[in-house]
């Protein structure tokens, strides 16, 4: 990385993907349903995003929201999604799986990594739900993951900063530690300086109001905690440019 850092932006739409690249993102994590923390994007979304951006696109492989303990049928879905997404031009994949006692599911990860080859793979924030992050990191290194995305097993990367710093020191360049979770213009400098990380992950979104003129306020298409029907969250070019400038000045 000639600039000394890489900014990955998490996106769930073509508009956000375009905005992220315009703002200076070095890589995209493409998902659907960021309200659930991200699940596998559709092949159609990947196909169109690849037509509009030039930076690498890593796709989330996560069949549902919730925990990271998967059934045999969910594993079938994950393996099928991996093959489909690889065939439609993904540059890398993002996944994770845990056992019921909060350890990295080594057996399943070996199978999924084999299906992903030769593409690079990031272990996502399932890492933040592990019982012992020090042991888990060594497991991910031995399995061959390219990087791990983590908030330091806390509510945000800023809150988890002490652990992220320890993980960077433990990794010693054997795996990339990428802080993510609540990163903004207000805390990015502290996260980068305090962790020693060279990559970071953000969504940098703003609310965009719907252009619908007729609105029915009585209907909600999802659960009670779902997003409003007449607005969407979209990656904000200005926010991303600001984060890019902060990173350049910090690293």
TrEMBL record:
The keyword Zinc does not apply. SUPFAM superfamilies: CutC-like. Keywords: Copper, Cytoplasm, Metal-binding, Nucleus. The keyword tRNA processing does not apply. InterPro entries: CutC-like (IPR005627), CutC-like_dom_sf (IPR036822). Belongs to the CutC family. PANTHER family: COPPER HOMEOSTASIS PROTEIN CUTC (PTHR12598), COPPER HOMEOSTASIS PROTEIN CUTC HOMOLOG (PTHR12598:SF0). May play a role in copper homeostasis. Can bind one Cu(1+) per subunit. This is Copper homeostasis protein cutC homolog. It comes from Scleropages formosus (Asian bonytongue). The lineage of its organism: Eukaryota, Metazoa, Chordata, Craniata, Vertebrata. The gene is CUTC.
